[in-house]
Write a structure and sequence with these properties.
By secondary structure, this protein is mainly α. It has 5 helices and 2 strands; from the N terminus they run αβαααβα. Helix 1 packs across helix 2, helix 2 crosses helix 3 and helix 2 packs parallel to helix 5.
């Protein structure tokens, strides 16, 4: 019964935490670029603030049967979570760049339409090109948002598949009966010593590193 409770809680809280940690879908860039501001003289560097002293780790209470984890922190600080965020950001940046290229084409045609002396046929062709580009931009924006959403869903499922067993393992080793998600369970206050987030991150990173380490070659038989 205890193991079932831990697994059920882990599966229930992973989705919300991972979704909040991911980047939002790409938005269509504005048709007109912002006016570049005049360069300002470099400001004097501010005095470096003293490095904050990390808070000492609190030992998990002996015999405690309740604990919590911060899924967003695991997604944001673990090696696997950072890699997923980087993949999503790389795709978002590429889609934004593609849309910016189309917007620059629109601006060039609009400028040509306003400043050039053209025949009616030429002006009509420019308008057709503008209409075509606007349709392309709308379609590209919709496709980009869908592609980003699909990747985010895929990364969430992959994250859950990988971190779920780690969370369950840590909770089982600690003989935890109930494991809460700090941000999704409605907890008002809890003892910080009951936080297993850092332990899960360390265990998760160790497993990730072990999976990426190539196996030693087999010895050559003489």
């Amino acid at each position: 019964m205890k193991a079932f409770t831990v697994v059920a809680v882990v599966v229930g809280v992973l989705v919300a935490g991972m979704a909040s940690a991911q980047q939002p879908p790409v938005q269509q860039p504005p048709a007109k670029p912002p006016v570049a501001a005049a360069p300002q003289p470099p400001a004097k560097p501010a005095a470096a603030a003293p490095a904050a002293t990390p808070a000492p780790e609190v030992k998990f209470p002996e015999g405690a049967r309740f604990a919590f984890v911060n899924i967003q922190r695991i997604a944001g600080e673990s090696v696997e979570g950072k890699a997923s965020s980087a993949r999503l950001e790389q795709l978002r940046a590429k889609k934004a760049s593609d849309l910016n290229d189309r917007n620059r084409q629109v601006e060039a045609l609009q400028a040509k339409q306003k400043s050039s002396v053209m025949s009616d046929d030429a002006r009509a062709q420019v308008q057709r090109d503008l209409d075509r580009l606007q349709v392309e931009i709308t379609r590209m924006t919709q496709d980009a948002q869908q592609e980003l959403q699909d990747m985010q869903n895929e990364l969430q499922l992959d994250f859950q598949r990988k971190v779920g067993p780690i969370v369950t393992q840590v909770a089982t080793e600690r003989s935890i009966q109930l494991l809460f998600s700090q941000l999704d369970s409605g907890l008002v206050w809890t003892d910080p010593a009951l936080d297993l987030t850092l332990e899960v991150i360390r265990r998760f990173d160790a497993v990730t590193a072990a999976l990426k380490t190539p196996a030693a070659p087999a010895p050559i038989k003489k």
